[in-house]
Prior knowledge:
By secondary structure, the protein is mostly beta strands. It is 15% helix and 45% strand. It is built from 6 helices and 24 strands. A 6-stranded antiparallel beta barrel has the order 1-2-3-6-5-4. It has a 6-stranded antiparallel β-barrel with strand order 11-12-13-16-15-14. It has a 3-stranded antiparallel sheet with strand order 22-23-24, with no helix packed on it. The two termini are 52 Å apart. Residues 106-125 and 463-468 have low confidence and may be disordered.
Amino acid sequence: MSAIFPLKDIRAGQKGIGKTVFSGDKIEDFQVEVLGILKNIGPDQSVIIARLSGGQLEKTGVIQGMSGSPVYIDGKLVGAVALAFSFAKDPIAGIRPIEDMLPLGARQQIAARGAAVPRPAKSGDSDLIEIATPLSFNGFTPATIQHFSEQMRQLGLEPRQGVSSGGQIPAKMGDPSRLRPGEMISVQLLSGDWGIGADGTVTEVDGNRIFAFGHRFLSVGGTELPFARANVLTVLANLSSSFKISSPLEWMGTITEDRSTSIYGELARKAATIPLTIDVNGYRHAPLSYHMEMVNDRILSPFILQMAVFSAIDATERTLGMGSFSLKGQIDFQQNFPPLRLDNTYAGDFGVPQTASLGVSTPLSYIMSAGFDTLKVKDIRLSIDASEKKDVLQLDQVAVSKREIHPGDTVELAVTLAGENGAEMMRSIKYKVPIGAPAGTLQFTVADATTTNLTEFQQTIGVLPKSA
């Protein structure tokens, strides 16, 4: 563990050095001049304000991806570059004191989903905010990034397509001794044929523990996210916010805690991930198959699955005009639990990727939020078949065979379905009235699976106890 330069000894005018990667995997120094301290920016939290210089910083300003870059005075660790002023012309940064970061590793891993984020500090028309974490997408379509970008920005992420070379990361764990403070890492939410990676910098390495970013990633509390050592291809100066273009090199370990002041991880620890396979059979191209590993997280996994299905449809078939998509597959579980089978058809003139992707991710969200510790997802396999026909039927009317029934009776429902060009289809459904059914009106709901599940969910919520 590095010697610490305590916050109480910080004074305006002090000078030090910071460490980060501007190119390749070479750690370079930049200069730091302390301007002062902003106290109580958050609960029991203060931030050191400093001017950065050297390297490319006069041209680029504070760079997305350098969050976590360690700062030293007299060879002692002060903290991590973590915040910056929006729309600032000068490279002025907020440095997170290392004292606020280190207790993270000693805490028990109690999930704190949606933990509070320190309020921004005002300075004229600018806010001192956490440096946005660049989120790199590989293999995804531009429409996917655009569709989900607002949700990602609300999480403090800045989605960027093609700013990481991606590709397959060797399965073998890298040498933990190669990871040093100031080096670039990429938290891999999805890897394989497609990739999603969040980039930042290592602040401190203490044995098999690392501290990085200097601020939250997603503030999901206790978690299990794989991370890799990364290579910086270049720094792109941008009028809005400069950022690093990077590439993951080799697996290094697992991020186990993500809280407001830092992320904390363990080297050489393999994260439990969910294998994801998506097969696409289009009507204008040969079958395609995508193989990926997805993080196992109750909030992130459904969101990533939704984006993957959206992109698979958007990338391989047209999404405007008449068309249908048959989506089949299953979610397998560990410990011999029976699989959840999916079999739905989505049709329309527009908006089909949104509907289909939500139809797949919603069941996964219910499963992972159910609260059953033993119900763990083993893998997910999906198959999407596309058709130019609008394969859709609308429920037109329902008629019952008799108006008065008794417990034990069988009632027949005649369902009329209306298709394209006036075509009609009849279906018969038989229902046996349960023995012991109470007297009164018996109501039938005939609907698609999504509507039925939503109705049942709303009815369940309606009978839950409520506080006064």
